[in-house]
Design brief:
Layout lengths: L7 H32 L2 H28 L2 H24 L5 H24 L1 H4 L5 H29 L2 H21 L14 H13 L2 H31 L3 H24 L5 H8 L5 H8 L3 H29 L5 H13 L2 H15 L1 H20 L2 H5 L5 H4 L2
């Protein structure tokens, strides 16, 4: 289970990604309540996080091309530097009481752009840091560490926001980006990099698109997650904090997010030991658990019920995450992997800004409870859409460890 940790490059990558996630988890809560403190408006909060998500989507394609052209650890270093500066500036403005909603929105969008630009590189670099027979364990270990970072980050975030205010949470996020950038800088990758043959950026985008659409299981899952993520993120980023402000409180919402990531940590441990031929099928089935959190917010918005349901949702989410990353790494050529990850991320998150922006007005128009029920229904239907495809149900796990090789 711990074999990938023998390799220094994998250890540095894991530490960098875990530290980054810890800060991001703090910043997610801090940004939401910073906007609510400035405006008291769920609609404005939706616009701010929606703009951040739009900029993230726009940067993904180029992030994939660059990650297939340049050393991926250097891409991560550059993105960490940009995020450090943007979050530090935003923290300073909030702490000095000079922040305005437009400035907060712009700085949040810059941070979203740099984080998203790094996603293809951070996903595609993992196979370069550990041997092929350990990829499933490596993906699970990275995600286990990330889940741990989320648990600590969400807990700290809720406390920081409740006790000293959102500005300190964003200052902590800036510090974590700086430390992570140093870790990425120290990574040493094999001398031969994938994608050393240069063509135009347009040609490389076309090649990546062909790889993406040639595999039915890839685009079916991405289409499903387009709707699933829009509903899930709208609940977690916008409607959830607003409901929490009226029921369980800000620190309580931090516990809910921490519980979800605790479930993800447990799910990662399960995924490390899981040996099944239809790994992606198991992962997709588990996504049905993701509908329980909006249902619980609608039916019983109490701390203990939300914590329990969030924990179960986290277990399901992590089964899918490890299955998806392992399947991509096994079945897609290494020199095009980052570009396919880009199209995956774009499709999966394309509708997220719509969900974030629309969920506030929908709650005003139809009611909070009804909107939460609708979000749960979207998640369930999107999951069933993925499971309806034979290509998803039949995709095989080709790990040598599975066959005893």
């Amino acid at each position: 289970m711990l074999a990938p940790l023998r390799y220094p490059a994998f250890r540095l990558l894991t530490v960098g990604r875990v530290i980054t996630q810890l800060g991001d988890s703090v910043a997610t809560i801090a940004l939401a309540f910073a906007v609510l403190d400035l405006t008291g408006s769920v609609v404005t909060l939706g616009l701010v996080v929606g703009l951040r998500s739009i900029m993230s989507v726009l940067s993904l394609l180029f992030g994939g091309v660059i990650a297939d052209r340049l050393p991926r650890n250097f891409v991560l270093v550059g993105c960490s530097a940009v995020s450090t500066l943007s979050q530090a500036l935003l923290a300073a403005l909030l702490l000095t009481g000079t922040a305005t909603v437009p400035v907060v929105a712009v700085l949040a969008a810059i941070n979203g752009t740099s984080v998203a630009f790094s996603w293809p590189a951070s996903a595609a670099i993992t196979p370069q840091t550990a041997p092929v027979e350990t990829w499933q364990q490596a993906n699970a270990l990275v995600r286990l560490g990330i889940s741990g970072g989320k648990i600590v980050g969400a807990s700290i975030g809720g406390l920081l926001v409740a006790v000293v205010g959102p500005g300190w949470g964003l200052a902590l996020d800036a510090l974590t980006f700086a430390v992570a950038g140093l870790c990425f800088l120290l990574i040493r990758l094999p001398r031969t990099e994938p994608g050393t043959e240069r063509t135009t950026m347009v040609r490389e985008l076309v090649d990546g698109w062909r790889e993406f659409v040639s595999r039915r299981w890839v685009w079916v899952v991405v289409v499903g997650f387009m709707f699933l993520n829009a509903a899930t993120v709208g609940v977690l980023q916008v409607l959830g904090p607003a409901v929490a402000d009226q029921t369980i409180g800000r620190s309580g919402w931090g516990l809910v997010i921490a519980a979800q990531t605790a479930g993800m940590a447990v799910g990662a441990v399960i995924a490390m030991r899981l040996r099944v031929r239809r790994l992606l099928l198991v992962g997709c089935v588990c996504m049905l658990l993701d509908a329980v959190l909006p249902l619980t917010l609608a039916i019983s918005p109490q701390t203990w019920t939300l914590v329990l349901m969030a924990f179960l949702a986290g277990i399901g989410l992590e089964q899918f995450g490890v299955a998806w990353e392992t399947s991509m790494q096994q079945h897609i050529p290494a020199d095009r992997l980052a570009r396919v990850y880009s199209y995956d991320a774009i499709g999966s998150f394309l509708a997220v800004p719509i969900g974030e922006i629309a969920i506030g007005p929908a709650a005003h128009a139809f009611g909070v409870t009804e909107t939460l029920y609708a979000a749960a229904g979207v998640i369930a239907l999107a999951t069933l859409f993925m499971l309806a495809s034979r290509s998803v149900r039949r995709l095989e796990n080709t790990s040598p460890a599975l066959s005893g090789g």
